[in-house]
Amino acid sequence: MILSKKSPRFYYKGNQLKQLRAFCAVAKSGKMTDAAEQLYLSQPAISLQIRALERELDTVLFERHGPRINMTREGQELYEMARPLVASLDTLNARFNRQMKGDLDSGEVIIAAGESTIIYLLPRLVKQFRERYPNIHVQLRNVTGRDGLAMIRDDEVDLAIGSMLDVPSDISYNPVYSFEPALILPLGHELAERKRVRIEDIAPYGLILPPRRLTTWRMVDRVFQQHHVPFNVTLEVGGWEVIKRYVELDFGISIVTGICLREDDKLVAKNMSAYFPKRSYGSVMRRGKYLSAQARAFLEVTEEEASMPDSPWRVDQSSR
Asked: Whose CA is closest to 197, among 229, 225, 221?
């Protein structure tokens, strides 16, 4: 049995990028030897690449005159087409790494958050992030918890910043900040002078709470049931600022998270950590999701901010 020698065409077939890279190197330098040196190949290897490309395209790309070669008209046309392609592919890895792993001079990060997070937590974080990465565009989507989870699952946002009590199995929650629970009262309320307020003391008064579908209402309901104490909700309204305003006007009292309390509030705040759990806030994302460099940078800023000595969230916000 006689085995025929394989043609170089078949050996190099399917490697058109290598062929084009060799072709462009020869076209630019005008010499096989210079192209071989540039690509760290032997001169015969370069010759085989060019011959294979000519066979693939069924044309002649170079006219050979001793050591010097000149491009044919077809060669010149191909060079104009191939040169930007080869240059782009040769820099693809570097450009990809800059864009996805380390280029923080452009791009965007899309964050879902509830109203309280956007009002009280994110302004300081976004300010720190923008100062460090001024060319990254930040989008904030104001959503409720349920809508935010839907956006996370559909990859409509990079991540969410918020608070969670019950974490679904397909969601990853990393708490970073912690806030104390507080009972807020209007000035002059009869419970305001008490050093310690028990959960039984709250029962006779009407509570102003966020809507039932939100986490705070469920948390308050759970705690009162655990202590077998009835409670009365006189008003359901969304937004901590609205709730605080109605408490100021003596429409009722409320259980809030320390994140919303400020020094200039015209309220009395009582720490209720003996009964209600601390409320954590942190990053929420789809489990297993790959985050862009921009999103990872935002998370780094949130964690750094929480660890700073002057962070307003290192201390209890309602024990004052």
From this structure: 229
Amino acid at 235: L
pLDDT at 28: 86
Query: Which runs of consecutive H residues, i.e. helices, occur in 203-287?
Result: 215-226, 240-248
User: Which domains does the chain carry?
Assistant: 8-90 (1.10.10.10), 105-178+280-307 (3.40.190.10), 181-277 (3.40.190.10)
Alpha-carbon distance of 294 to 300, in angstroms, equals: 10
Q: Helices (H) and strands (E) in the chain — how many of each?
A: 13, 12
- Describe the crossing of helices 73-90 and 16-29 by its angle, rounded to 10 degrees: 110
Quick check: helix, strand or coil at residue 65? strand
Looking at beta carbons, which pairs linking 30-33 to residues 24 or more positions away fall under 8 Å?
A: 30/68, 30/69, 30/70, 31/67, 31/68, 31/69, 32/69, 33/67
Place of tokens 């705690």: 223
Residue ranges in the chain modelled with pLDDT below 50: 1-14, 314-320
Summarize pLDDT for 52-104 with one digit per residue, the tens: 998 989 999 998 776 678 899 998 999 888 888 887 777 676 666 655 555 67
pLDDT at residue number 301: 92
Whole-angstrom distance, CA of residue 157 vs CA of residue 70: 54
Is 231 in contact with 145 (CB distance < 8 Å)?
no
Q: Give the end-to-end CA distance of the chain in Å, rounded to a whole number.
A: 96
Q: What secondary structure letter does DSSP report for 98?
A: I
